[in-house]
Amino acid sequence: GRVMVQFTIAATGSVASSVVQSSTLGNAAVEQCIARAVKAWVFPKPMGGIVVVTYPFTLQNASE
């Protein structure tokens, strides 16, 4: 499945918000777990202010 997460990197480099934008998983618990994990990330301070990112996470079974 694919989970699209939109997150905002604050001027400090921390992730200020993280939300699931769309998903094909059909599993809200996994989708929210991914969004919470992204919220804990820290990036280098962006030049020029905040940055909004939309990133696709593609998941597949380990046996595939």
Rounded to the nearest angstrom, the distance between the terminal CA atoms is 13 Å
Number of helices: 1
Radius of gyration: 13 Å
Widest sheet: strand ordering = 2-1-3
Averaged pLDDT? 95
**Amount of helix:** 10-25%
Helix/strand/pairing category: alpha+beta
**Strand percentage:** 35-45%
What oligomeric state do the depicted chains represent?
single chain
Overview of the structural elements:
With 64 residues, this protein is an alpha+beta fold. The chain contains 1 helix and 3 strands; from the N terminus they run E-E-H-E. It has one helix spanning 28-39, and strands at residues 2-9, 15-23, 51-58. The chain is elongated and about 40 Å long.
Task: Provide tags for this entry.
elongated; three-stranded antiparallel sheet; 1 helix
List the helices and strands and how they pair.
Blueprint: E1 2-9, E2 15-23, H1 28-39, E3 51-58
Antiparallel strand pairs: 1-2, 1-3
How would you briefly describe this protein structure?
With 64 residues, the chain is α+β, with helices and mostly antiparallel strands. The protein is built from one helix and three strands; from the N terminus they run E-E-H-E.
